[in-house]
Specification:
The protein is an all-alpha fold. It has a single domain, classed as Four Helix Bundle (Hemerythrin (Met), subunit A) (Up-down Bundle), CATH 1.20.120. Helix content is 72%, strand content 0%. It contains 6 helices and no strands.
Length: 162
């Protein structure tokens, strides 16, 4: 891939990362639980704060690993509007067909644990349901159409979640 193509892919990935998981796992949760995030005692962190941060960072690492894998191996982005051109089945995708979604959910669980926000837990549950419905009714049919028997074989060998 030429350097101009790589730059374009990097810019598109940055844009969609800010737009999609940035909003879903960053801005919206902040507005839902902003009082909890603003008022936590920074000098007196408790066990749930550390647990939440660990879950958040793990989810973030999973998300970034998947975004990079989509760009390098799949030659696309995380966005359905600019999908990968190759089926990605390596790395975390050997264990789950949707590790990126799992990473976003883990980020949200970490935020929910950290903030101890019931509203944020409800948002996370609703978002998981929405992800699942989107995957089943939109994303999997598109992948099956785009990648055919290769995707069917992948589905037989790798679970949807974990």
């Amino acid at each position: 891939m030429k350097s101009q193509g790589l730059l374009s892919l990097a810019v598109r990935n940055l844009f969609f990362t800010i737009l999609q998981p940035g909003m879903v796992a960053g801005l919206i949760p902040y507005y839902i639980a902003r009082d909890s995030f603003r008022n936590y005692p920074g000098h007196a962190l408790r066990f749930h704060h550390y647990t939440g941060m660990l879950l958040f960072l793990t989810g973030l690492l999973i998300l970034f690993n998947c975004i990079i894998r989509f760009a390098v191996e799949g030659r696309g982005t995380l966005s359905p509007a600019d999908p990968t051109r190759r089926l990605v089945t390596t790395g975390l995708y050997r264990f789950s067909r949707n590790p990126m979604y799992a990473g976003v959910i883990m980020i949200l669980i970490g935020e929910s644990v950290f903030a101890q926000s019931v509203d944020l837990w409800v948002y996370t549950a609703i978002l998981f349901l929405a992800f699942n419905l989107f995957i089943i009714f939109r994303e999997e049919p598109r992948l099956r159409n785009d990648f055919g028997k290769g995707y069917d074989n992948y589905c037989r060998n790798v679970r949807r979640w974990i």
